[in-house]
Every structure is written in C-alpha cells, then in structure tokens.
Specification:
Layout: H1 3-16, H2 21-37, H3 48-57, H4 63-82, H5 111-129, H6 135-157, H7 161-165, E1 172-173, E2 178-183, E3 187-192, H8 195-207, H9 213-221, H10 238-252, H11 258-271, H12 276-282, H13 288-294, H14 296-308
Antiparallel strand pairs: 1-2, 2-3
Length: 314
Amino acid sequence: MLIEKAVQYFISSLEAEQLSSHTIKAYLQDLNQFKKWTQKKEVDDLNFEDFQDYFIEISKLKMTSIKRKRVVMHRFFKFCYRKKLCTEKLHEYIDPIRSKKNVVPKEVLSREEISLIFDFLKKEEKQYKLKVNNTYYDYLYYCSLRNQLLISILLYTGCRAHEVVALKKQDINLLQNTITLFTKGGKYNQVPIHDELRKALDNYNESISTLSLGLQNLLQESHYLFPSKTDSNNYMPTRTLHDLMKKLSAATGRHIHAHLFRHTFASYCIAANMDISTISSLISHSNPSITLSIYTHEIDAHNKQEQIKKLSFY
C-alpha cells in the first residue's frame, strides 16, 4: 500500500469519527512532513531505522511538537496494521514520550482586569457613537458593540474561539435562555445564558437598531450572529478575534488571548463550588476526568481553602 493512499484512508477514518477540522489538519500536516522526508513510497518498505532517523531529524523541535508527531505516527501506523494496509506492526517501533506533567495554576483574569476590559470596550463604544454619521465610524461603532458581546459570550460560557465566531442566530434561544455551541468533535452543547450575558445580548440587539440601514441589512440577512464584513454568508474570521485580543492586551498591559476567558470561566466556577461534572458539561469536555486533569491545581487549591476552615484549636 502506498503511504500516500494509506494517509488518505486514515484521514477519512478521522473524519468519520467527527474529529475537529483543526485536529485533522494537524494530523495531516505531521504525516505529510514524514512522507516528504522519507524517500520510500510503500508502507511495507518502512523499518525501525527509518523511524529512528526521522526522530533524530526532528530532535531539535520543541518537546511538545516531538511528542505530538510521535503520537500521530503511532496512531497512523497502528491503523495501517489493523486495516491490513501493512504486514508489520510498525507502530511498535514508535515509543511515546512520557514526561511528568508539572501541575501549575492556569492563568486567569482578576475581577479588576475583567472590569478594565469592559471599561475599555465601553469607552470605544461611546467614542465611535459620536461619529456614526460617517460610514467609516458607523462600522467601527458596530465593531465596538460586537466586541462587547464577543467578550461577554467568551467570559460567561467558557467557549472556544472558533465556537463563538461561528455562532448562528438560531443558536441563541432567549425563550429557553440557552446558547447552543457547535463544539470540538462536531458535537452540540446547550449552555444556559447567565444573567449578565442576557443583559449584554439585550443591549446589543437594542443598539444595532441604531446602525445605518446598510449595516442593519448585512446583519439581518446573515444566518450568523457575527457575519463577515465582506460576505454575509460566512462568519467573521477568527483572525478578527485575535486582533481584538491584541488590542485588549495593549489596554490591560498583559497578554490576552481567547482561551484565557475559558480558563477564567472554569476557575471561577470551581471557586463558586460548582460540581465538576457540571463544569465539565458547561465547557464541553467529553469527560469530567479531562476537566480534573486540566484544573487539578485550581481544584486542589480551592479544596485546601475549604478544608482548612474546619480546623479549630478551641
């Protein structure tokens, strides 16, 4: 079996498992790099020396990259053997790198930093609102409204960057007070709308009614909550969200990224004594054990604070 053909079968199997497009893209990139490096065309032509030489070749990469490439290749060649695309258990030549995880606290936003972010966004809104008669500033005014809602959704749902930008209007059900997120692995997760997020949604819907007719038409004809500026049939690019994060980083004096809001949401949920199963469901983890492994430090620190209160010498 040609390596190229085997890779195609493997990628098709990942798509059938409904892995996220980001994961599949990363797998394909790693396998194509190996395929490009090796001069051999057939899977059965590969041997132990090929893998060892390749791992020496990539040894200067970051450890996280090396570990990922080993995992991808191990899974690929195990798939090949199981599906009889090769005769030898080539995956047994690829040992995973196991290293002890350092449990460190996740970076989160303080209440002061959250207030600073919203103050900055509201200041922008007021600044552009004064100039809405100008087409250019009319769009910037819309962006300031959109940005406030984007951050509110990230903060009060703990969703991922690609989940928030791809939200459709139909995903928000104000009657049932829920937002349906299209999450990692092609699954849907319905989460409740927090009171503060409900206020942000109401404010957004009220404010966009004051925009120019052209902008209102763009927003109305799109299925997406945050449509692309150039094509209402598509949602805004994730790059736009990254640009917003850069702006917020400059305003707060610290590195801000979309996933920081996810960590903040989960950490504050833990501090609020929420059940781990509930938190896991809210942030779209497939299993509570994933939540436990990611937020071990936060859970442990919170439990210590709660347990120490039981201590008394009187």
